[in-house]
Design goal:
Layout lengths: L1 H36 L2 H6 L12 H4 L12 H15 L1 H9 L15 H12 L8 E2 L1 H17 L17 E6 L4 H10 L7 H7 L5 E9 L3 E8 L1
Parallel strand pairs: 1-3
Antiparallel strand pairs: 2-4, 3-4
Helix pairs in contact: 4-5, 4-8, 5-6, 8-9
Length: about 230
């Protein structure tokens, strides 16, 4: 009888343990397919895929020319990729990011201003540019030095206030107040309060073939980004 009670107790203990373990294993098994559907490649290497599945095709993965570049942060890599995607398919960018109600950059017709309207017109008429921007380390050093100095002093503009900062670019864009890649690119494309639309022109120009990007803290605007094109 003692042996039977010991065996019976063992069965009860095993049953209790299984009652706690099995549901956890089952939940994990049920959730596994769901997690597999979350394509990490889309969020890390294809940032615009969250707005449209059309961005998920292979040809847009090639826009990530900064992939594997160690001197870029993930956000800096995304800036290069988004710029390449805009240049490669400006109409898709327009429809999926600017005119898409699911996008944070969606503009209701009544809220559009001159800069919104001109960007829409520009992207509608812009010819696709298959020449992808590639990372340039010298341009990166130039951009980072300027971004770091601007941030520490808390000033804006293109003038180098640090004599050690070498100007190694043919075109330069500076953005203030944003740290995420898409916001930085959008701020430069919209180019609010810049009548010449110089930042937009540089970002979309076929003249440049390489780029250096640096995002750094800024005393006045929290963040600043410098994009140096060559």
């Amino acid at each position: 009888m003692k042996n039977f009670k010991t065996f019976d107790l063992a069965i009860i203990i095993v049953t209790i343990i299984l009652s706690f373990c099995l549901p956890i294993e089952c939940i994990s098994a049920k959730k596994a397919p769901f997690f597999k559907k979350v394509n990490v490649i889309d969020t890390i290497y294809n940032p615009l895929a969250v707005f449209s599945k059309e961005w998920r095709v292979d040809k847009y993965q090639a826009c990530n020319t900064a992939r594997g570049i160690k001197y870029f942060t993930s956000s800096e890599k995304e800036i290069v990729q988004i710029l390449n995607m805009v240049r490669l398919n400006p109409v898709l960018f327009l429809n999926s990011v600017i005119l898409n109600p699911a996008s944070p950059y969606y503009k209701f017709p009544a809220a559009r201003n001159h800069y919104d309207e001109t960007l829409i017109t520009t992207l509608q008429k812009l010819q696709p540019n298959s020449k992808l921007l590639i990372p340039n380390e010298d341009a990166f050093i130039s951009a980072k030095c300027h971004a770091v100095t601007s941030g520490k002093i808390g000033y804006v503009g293109h003038d180098r206030k640090n004599s050690n900062c070498k100007e190694d670019f043919y075109g330069e864009c500076c953005s203030y107040g944003f740290s995420d890649a898409l916001s930085i690119v959008m701020s430069l494309l919209l180019d609010y309060d810049v009548p010449s639309l110089g930042h937009r022109e540089i970002c979309l120009s076929t003249t440049y073939s390489s780029i250096g990007v640096s995002i750094q803290p800024h005393q006045s605007y929290e963040f600043n980004a410098v994009l140096d094109f060559k």
